[in-house]
Known about the structure:
Chain A is 16% helix and 44% strand. Chain A is built from five helices and 19 strands.
Amino acid sequence: MLELRLVQGSLLKKVLESVKDLVNDANFDCSATGFSLQAMDSSHVALVALLLRSEGFEHYRCDRNISMGMNLGNMAKMLKCAGNDDIITIKADDGSDTVTFMFESPTQDKIADFEMKLMDIDSEHLGIPEAEYHAIVRMPSAEFCRICKDLSSIGDTVVISVTKEGVKFSTRGDIGTANIVCRQNTTVDKPEEATVIEMNEPVSLTFALRYLNSFTKASPLSNTVTISLSSELPVVVEYKIAEMGYVRFYLAPKIEEDEEETKP
Amino acid sequence: MGIKGLMKLLADNAPSGMKEQKFESYFGRKIAIDASMSIYQFLIVVGRSGTEMLTNEAGETTSHLVGMFSRTIRLLEAGIKPVYVFDGKPPDLKKQELAKRYSRREDATDDLAKATEAGNKEDIEKFSKRTVKVTPQHNDDCKKLLRLMGVPAVEAPSEAEAQCAALCKAEKAYFPLPSHALGIIIDKYQMRKSSYTCQVYAVASEDMDSLTFGAPKFLRHLMDPSSKKIPVMEFDISKVLEELELDMDQFIDLCILCGCDYCDSIRGIGPQTALKLVRQHGSMESILENINKERYQIPDEWPYKEARRLFKEPLVVTDDEQAELKWAAPDEEGLINFLVKENGFNIDRVTKAIEKIKTAKNKSSQGRLESFFKPVSTSAPVKRKETAQTTEKGAANKKSKAGGGKKKK
């Protein structure tokens, strides 16, 4: 028996909107501690890890660990039917091959039940080691979103480099080049508008903008985004979900091959 | 060719060891391809109508070049890094099988002559396909083409499949590779730069004996034309063994019983019986002791031990003898000289193709997550319907046979 009641139903709607374009099908894992998901995109370049801790739910009942395979596109379709102020309850019976989403309007005068078929999904669970990152950048999520969008109109890949001066995003395409530098800036009125750079070592990595653009769909979830970089490791782009958990995106870097290899 | 009936046997008895995969999902992977098998396929399929083949001005066949060129570009465009492995000298045990193939080809040549006389179009096509033979000239042409395209080609000392498997087995050695790792040497610089570039992920062939040679991952239909829209079938030997409840030695015995290229099978024993016998008795020796000799006649000279050794310890190039695998930029001038001037290819097509190879090179630099994070558990952690699934085993089997999706309807 599973019953999860989320007062701020719009959160779940936003979560789904942020991951559904990256991943088609995924297993949601429910345990006593929380509701989580780990899934890779079909090309195994990017990975999304979602955690909604049990404390964030108004009511959380999960008798035994279960894994529910869902088509995220279909799930998003159903959640779109929920109003932004609605309370969403996720329900599943033991051994059932469906899951029910219940939407209650805040005034309790409308209750909707949507039942969705589950799927069996073979998925590989990757072990992600806790790593010390060379550089961690925290910046307004809207700013990061804008940068990725702007750069993708010029080129396909972005070089993100962190130095003492700040974080630099640069790209190059057929029509020319673009460089955007964000300096550390903590003297702002609101803490969420700050750009904070913690750097142990300078790093410079190349990524496909297509994926970063897809990650920024999670911007509505949080005002700030944290980008953690280490050379030779995937970048982590994290959006915190207030008092509940996070959506983290991992993206494998592009690796420039040896100069001598590219020569005939 | 390969192991008789193994494909069906695995589909029935080890469905979870095989998965349908999208062609695109292999980007960034290194894949060892059995070149001789591919060339053979190209000669049969590419640009054929009746007995007519694609030829250059001198009248030499070019089907293999057309096929090799376009399929390799397709692989490169998908970000796959192919390594072609060519057959060397066949093992002595295979001579019998080769002689059979030779005589079949002779028969086909006779049939073809008759069919041509009778003017039966279908028969002409059927028999002319059967007369196809891969000559050393074909192999050399393809090697030259690959070199110009910047794609590595490896010459196997003996069977290509065995060499492919050896390249792929090196993948098992976790990074950093110990110095005795099979097949590939990497210099330290490259190792530091990109850990993942040193691993051959899978073997692509149509011959099922790649599995018997111990390829950890084996792909079928990778080289099929895209127009056919056949998904790639990926076999995972460890899952196959798990589900068959056999170890690798027993699996090799099973394949020998099914019928391989190296010795005859026993009359009356097919794949199903073979599986039953191996499961029951555990090894070939014990099967031979316990089997009903009246019912099953074991051939007088049955070199199963030698065949077993060929599968277990095939002649392959290992270690330092093996040159580093490199994917280089294409030699444009060389390609145009070879394909356009010598073999009558259309110059526009070749220049366009070269452009494709160049753009594809950029794409292949994208890393995969598995190069950084290792899988911890492969199957779904907790089954929702554990009890229901065990009781409905038959139904579950059927479902998974239908494909990887297994959607609940």
